[in-house]
Amino acid sequence: MTSHAHMYDILFEPVRIGPVTAPNRFYQVPHCNGMGYRMPRALAEMRRVKAEGGWGVVCTEEVEIHHSSDLAPFFEGRLWSDDDIPALALMAEAVHRHGALAGIELTHNGHDALNYYSRATSFGPRSMGLMGGTGFEPGQCRRMDREDIRNLRRWHRNAALRAKRAGFDIIYCYAGHGLSLAMHFLLRRFNDRTDEYGGSLTNRVRLFRDLIEDTKDAVGDRCAVAVRMAVDELLGDEGLSSQGEAYEIVAMLAELPDLWDVNISAWSNDSASSRFEKEGFQEPYIAFVKQLTSKPVVGVGRYTSPEAMVSAVRRGILDFIGAARPSIADPFLPRKIQEGRTEDIRECIGCNICVSGDNKCVPIRCTQNPTMGEEWRRGWHPETIAPKCSDAEVLVIGAGPAGLECARALGQRGYQVALVEARREPGGRVAREARLPGLSEWRRVIDWRLTQIARMPNVQLLPGNPMTAADVLESGYEHVIIATGAIWRRDGVGRTVYHPVPGCDLLHVYTPDDIMDGRLPTGRVVIYDDDHYYMGGVLAELLACRGCGVTLCTPAPLVSHWSQFTLEQERIERRLRDLGVAIHTRSALSAVHVGAVTVRDIAASRLTDLACDSVVMVADRAPRDALATDLAPARADGRLRTLRLIGDANAPHIIAQAVFAGHLAAREFDEMPDADVPPFAREFIPLNVQS
Ligand code: ADP
Ligand code: SF4
């Protein structure tokens, strides 16, 4: 049954890829997830849900073809031997259950493989410092000789054969993100060889061509052979570019693969956050590819609107709408378009919290989709939820991300819910933060939830109602969930400073809340950032753009240090430096005076005075939990049957954690799990102990 408007029909056309046919143009490109070979069941279920949601092609993450491409400590896919086939077969089978094609991205990571687990010697086109992990790891790889190249080709071929046995339909040769040997050989800066694999472009392309030809020869009868290639590194002549060598490479290999999956490199460019790039941002770089090949082309660009997708196809830029993040935020995006439910699409906000999962070697999580990564271990589905198991009526207090998600999910379960919010505008911190520079797409977190709630007759949103404990008790609700958020501390106390900073009560001390409320400092401003994610950097940008002379001090070694894990740190620092923001790292705040602050150089224990007219404290936040404290006696004496504190009011954290906390509270309502046992399934290695 299709009820989507005809204007989107083109997205649901089948497209042939070599010997296989994709049922539609929705293509989940390879994306890592922090689960990898460690959590095969969780991974298979996560991918299955995407196929169920209508993605016509669902791919793995990068899959190591050999133990000399061991990406530990990161958890990617592995196909080192036949023993790895069953785990991957689980995923291919799960994806097939819904009529989608399963793709696998084979890779040897060359000098990006640190081999910390396997202890194999890394190798590459030349001997050079290892590039993987932090990018600052000790050790070098060795230069590959002819035998190494022969071995590599055999391993790649064997991996392709194993992938075919595992049931995959599309098998990749990977030359993207600067992360694979095939790409390292393409690049002049890494390839200084004088044999037939170095020198001229034809020679540098040889290895990539060999791998594609070998793969076609091995599995091309039944499997499509795709390439994933970086067609611009945004490095000008230093790297591949769509006007330079990448153009020539695509022209040389145009008809060889069955499919071109093209993007920009490095990963931080490909997965640029919404703070820096908008929907369709890769089009100028990838548009040339379709002019050079008759094979289908996949590209990404955080497409979430069906109009933009249709346009990219109609303008002849893409054959498939590639997506990693939009498929994470909404695994059912294609189905929603097909069923004419576009307003139900849970649009990705481009925050890259999903990326941080891989970078922190933990299972993927998503700000918008709290079920992401929880499909198998908690049995959570993004679209369905257990129906209510009582006629309880619930009062949720605070309509930030935690309260909104909690009320929405409780409403979906069928409970009667009153969602009460002190401010006239719902949305809590998200409504306020989305007005800061570059963060406007974050509003999608609240917009989607408000749209859903507006359709639920059993959920009542009551803004403009600051609640006291007396109000709560008077309301007669016996089940209360408190999601009242947190406020930024004014005293500088945080990870680095444990006691209020002397002078923090002076009038020229501001907090992010003051600024978001429109109380803005002027003149020379020192921002003290002991939060380390986006807030300090965003406020520096805001105030610098408003003409303040901004100095950012942070105890961390880098400005907005944690944003490394969302791939934003370098761009943030560049933007701040371009705006003339002075940056003092490894600096803790010691005192605030009239006209200056004293900062302590953590590395050298030296004190320095920095002249300023005002100070912005971006340190810890104080949970707004007084209501819970005031209501505790009513819970103890039974006037309240349940009382739960969630989100920032419980423990201030990132927005993704607040959404998750709201969702968890809704799932656990009426059925609290035993706190003594893990609330999720784990994947154990079977120990076949023989006595
Ligand atoms: P979270 O991230 O945990 O959702 P937020 O700070 O974003 O937290 O949202 C909390 C919301 O709770 C804010 O919109 C705030 O106005 C609201 N709030 C705080 N105290 C009360 C109260 N006593 N009554 C009603 N709403 C409240
Ligand atoms: Fe999009 Fe953020 Fe979810 Fe990643 S975590 S898919 S960037 S909303």
From TrEMBL:
<keyword id="KW-0411">Iron-sulfur</keyword>
<keyword id="KW-0285">Flavoprotein</keyword>
<dbReference type="Pfam" id="PF00724">
    <property type="entry name" value="Oxidored_FMN"/>
</dbReference>
<keyword id="KW-0479">Metal-binding</keyword>
<dbReference type="GO" id="GO:0046872">
    <property type="term" value="F:metal ion binding"/>
</dbReference>
<dbReference type="InterPro" id="IPR013785">
    <property type="entry name" value="Aldolase_TIM"/>
</dbReference>
<dbReference type="InterPro" id="IPR037348">
    <property type="entry name" value="TMADH/DMDH_FMN-bd"/>
</dbReference>
<comment type="similarity">
    <text>In the N-terminal section; belongs to the NADH:flavin oxidoreductase/NADH oxidase family.</text>
</comment>
<dbReference type="InterPro" id="IPR051793">
    <property type="entry name" value="NADH:flavin_oxidoreductase"/>
</dbReference>
<dbReference type="InterPro" id="IPR023753">
    <property type="entry name" value="FAD/NAD-binding_dom"/>
</dbReference>
<dbReference type="Pfam" id="PF07992">
    <property type="entry name" value="Pyr_redox_2"/>
</dbReference>
<dbReference type="GO" id="GO:0051536">
    <property type="term" value="F:iron-sulfur cluster binding"/>
</dbReference>
<dbReference type="InterPro" id="IPR036188">
    <property type="entry name" value="FAD/NAD-bd_sf"/>
</dbReference>
<dbReference type="GO" id="GO:0010181">
    <property type="term" value="F:FMN binding"/>
</dbReference>
<keyword id="KW-0288">FMN</keyword>
<feature type="domain" description="NADH:flavin oxidoreductase/NADH oxidase N-terminal">
    <location>
        <begin position="11"/>
        <end position="343"/>
    </location>
</feature>
<keyword id="KW-0408">Iron</keyword>
<feature type="domain" description="FAD/NAD(P)-binding">
    <location>
        <begin position="393"/>
        <end position="630"/>
    </location>
</feature>
<dbReference type="GO" id="GO:0016491">
    <property type="term" value="F:oxidoreductase activity"/>
</dbReference>
<dbReference type="InterPro" id="IPR001155">
    <property type="entry name" value="OxRdtase_FMN_N"/>
</dbReference>
<protein>
    <submittedName>
        <fullName>NADH:flavin oxidoreductase/NADH oxidase</fullName>
    </submittedName>
</protein>
<keyword id="KW-0560">Oxidoreductase</keyword>
